[in-house]
């Protein structure tokens, strides 16, 4: 999984990433493609130009390869195909001559010594192109994938599960270890004996796994990736082996801390064993809480995406821009204006749909309007597809010939109508003035809209990411005419395009529009919103499955640590348990010390969760810019209740295990009598 995600992020982790930029005039010169091929042959390096697929940028990428050294990585990809590990993210490799008509600006991967990257940029500078070698923080290493939240949680839980299982198995064998000690076997030899017993099983498992992985790699044509898989596997093996041996040694130390005669009766050093066990149990509780909150959040996101399935299906070929790495050049004023004006032209011809949601605090700035009031900027094309109803239930039509901007205010916010009319007009004018421009004549009118309406946002967010629930409930609608002069080329059209709020109605026409408006340098493809939503739904579904499996494993850690505590308790207090049972003590009274310890842990855990939640909410209140989505806030608020449920579950597991040991003590003693 780690290797697969790494190869989805970068074609080859050993390649040097080079970003080439420049203006359209420089990029349009003849001879650049031939110069790159000559450079590769002269310096004996392989170079790949990476481009996203025009129709499926999220699931398919293209590599145009020029081979200058058959011995370097990537040389065999033209004939044998790309050795990928993902079924959802494909990579197609093409010979370099097919890149002759492509824009030479973009992302290059250089296979060879990193020093050649500087020479590569020097060679392109002859044509007026420049660029940069990606700094370390831009390159992707497999260890960064390991640190991903979901994978790291699974890794931590697996580590705790292994530690708890190994320690418990050693403690359960206290009597056999006491016999060895009685015969004078030193601790070091006992450890080597245990490891020797495990060696045949581990060797067989290692050989089996290696053969299976080699077969799978060969089947999928990814056998050249064996080195990457081996590197990642050795990392995990070393960590798990170190933790396992440390746990084994610690458990043996606890066994040896008890005298030989008490150990022959199965007794253990109670305090040390209990402290060691709770040192694993407490982190497991915290992990279970975090995993439960994450799973609850992911399930809400998954449910929200599921609710929007029909709306995305109806969207058909409506597509969003997918920007290349050269999008940074759009910050330049001249390029920005040209890009924005081209989008305005598309809007004027009815080829663009605007759906830009946001909160008033981020859109209008500090005003008398509540900062969390939902706004959505739309155009006439949006209103035709998604009618907004007036107070009487009739849909608002397109703007009149006057070109005024309409602010449709839900009846529930009717008291804000006058303020919104003034603030929206001020916001539009300031957008022009901030760029040293002269604002056009802008006329703003307000009108009431029916309460209870839910508008489809096509998944757009201010950050350009897909939103969990792509609907806005009772938003204030700022409706602008198609191609309105009120919208600024950069502040509005450019920003809406980068956040996925400026959508193209026709998929094939959109590709042609990108060519006609000279946008290929910045827009490498247009992606249907339905396809983007399907990709997002698949990713969240996979995340839910991973989080659910990790949560189950974390509960297994709680179960194993519960068993360990009960083993230590039962062996230390077996006679007392039997005596109290014979005297008619109730179960909870018999084990009141252990039950009290677990109850204190549960109360402390719930109290800590409540305190942590209050701290987070206080932070959100004092730092409005750090407030996450409403779904995430609800997950934070529910954490104390989740902690209470986890505590009850953990206590229930402990009592169930304790009951089994209780009946076992009574049964074995009765049988002996």
UniProtKB/TrEMBL annotation:
Keywords: Membrane, Transmembrane, Transmembrane helix
Bilayer-spanning residue ranges: 154-180, 201-223, 235-257, 278-297, 548-572, 593-611, 631-661
Membrane recorded as keyword: yes
Origin superkingdom: Bacteria
Entry keyword annotation includes Electron transport: no
Protein's recorded name: FtsX-like permease family protein
